[in-house]
Amino acid sequence: MTADTRAWVKAFRRALELAAGEPVLSTWRNDLKAFPRGCCELASQTLVRYLMEHDEKLFPYVIGMDWRVNAQDYGHVIVALNGDYIDLTLDQFDGYDDWVVAEPVESGGQIAAFMQMVRGQGGTLSTRELTFAGIPDQAWKLYDWLKTTADSLLPATGQPCSPPQLVSMEILKEYRGWTLNGPSDNIGHAPEKKKQKKMTHTGTITECYQPREVRLRETGTWWVSECGLRFRKSTGAAVASGVWSANRLDLKSIREIPSED
After folding, report:
1. Which residues pair with 62 in a beta bridge?
2. 203/214 Cα distance (integer angstroms)
């Protein structure tokens, strides 16, 4: 794992810790209040998205584990990336005091031991779909907060630092004037615009694997939606995301809006 990737992972874990007490995220208070306990799916899915947005050459994926002990079902979710395991919430389990930034798959470390325990209980391991569907309410709003906060913990050197003193208040101000019409209308949301430019085309975008039609305008590099989402003209991928982003514009769906003249 590169130093940059390690820094991104550390910053994102710290953002998750801060989220547990953030007033603007009251919608997810019940999901985050006991972090890291019960947060493995949420943490892993959002981390995958965060890493892919920072480097389109990264292809992390999610591994789910399920096992049963004394008629009780258990589960856990981690991330795998380039021959490493990443476990943001391993410290929720008794006997595991630390979460794991990176552990080589073949190292026989803490995560490998945990997986062996799962197998020993007759459990199963499988890859999971990359989706926010398991996160309640407007998952993209929660993700945006986590991303913004994690990025604020990364100084120019790329190494995590102590959180800025008023990071929560800064995030809160960003959301005060927004109206959310869909699960991710705030992804890549442009700052307050002085004048709305004319939309000239329509197209279909996919968010959280759900398609919807939007109005668009064309620039030299992007297709831009009314709510400020930007998509690469070459691939349709959303700005700051990888080529295989689930948040994208179907270039074949683009149609010019007929003139009213």
Report:
1. 79, 128
2. 6
DSSP alpha helices (H): ranges in 2-78?
Answer: 3-19, 29-32, 40-54
Q: How far is CA 130 from the centre of its chain?
A: 10
CA dist list (Å): 52 to 130, 220, 247: 11, 24, 12
pLDDT 10s per residue in the chain (261 long)?
Answer: 889 999 999 999 999 999 888 888 888 888 888 889 889 999 999 999 999 999 988 889 899 999 888 888 889 999 999 889 999 999 888 888 889 999 888 788 889 888 888 888 888 888 888 888 777 777 888 899 999 999 998 865 444 544 443 333 333 343 334 333 333 333 232 233 334 578 899 998 875 456 778 888 898 878 887 666 778 888 887 764 443 344 678 899 999 988 765
Residues sharing a CB contact under 8 Å with residue 2, sequence separation 6 or more, in sequence order? none
Distance, in Å, from the CA atom of 77 to the CA atom of 63, rounded to the nearest integer, reads 6
The angle that helices 40-54 and 139-152 make with each other, rounded to 10 degrees, is 60
CA distances from 45 to 40, 42, 78, 183 (A): 8, 5, 9, 15
Vertex 36, ends 32 and 39: CA angle to 5°? 60
Consecutive H or E run containing 254: strand 248-256
Q: Which residues of 96-122 are buried (b: 16+ CB within 10 A; e: fewer)?
A: beebbbbbeeeeeebbeebbeebeeee
Contact criterion met (CB below 8 Å) for 1 and 82: yes
Whole-number CA gyration radius for the chain: 20
233 with 249: CB under 8 angstroms? no
